[in-house]
Fold this protein.
Amino acid sequence: TYLDGDGLASYFPPQAGSGNRGSDTLTAYLLAATHEASSLDPAFALSPEVRAPMERGLIAFVEGRIQRDFWSPRKDLDMRKLAAIEALSRYGKATGRMLSSITVAPNQWPTHSVIDWLNVLRRVPDAPQREQRLAEPTR
């Protein structure tokens, strides 16, 4: 009941007629957190029926078919897309093609984005220049 029409999670139940205001950040976090928790206890896993619309929503966000504009003190769209790709990569839903939607700049990213980047590179075998890029953040 907390997913909007695009499959993105909302902090509060969406009101009828309020439009799609779900958060890509919250959705990515929920997918990543439940993936980690389910590795400790399968009871924490999201059911496919709940997870599928969230995955579709994040894919649409990464591909630019839906947009969410929230206030931020700095431009964070690339970091938000990277977090979404990382969450999708946990379930085998990320592709190397998705990375073309972001500017790759690990030296300018905060630590959490560099960690997301490393996880994506480890999980997405068709990431462009994968082997070279895997070495960059660890230098």
Summary: The mean pLDDT is 92. The chain has one domain: 24-138. The CA atoms of residues 64 and 102 lie 11 Å apart.
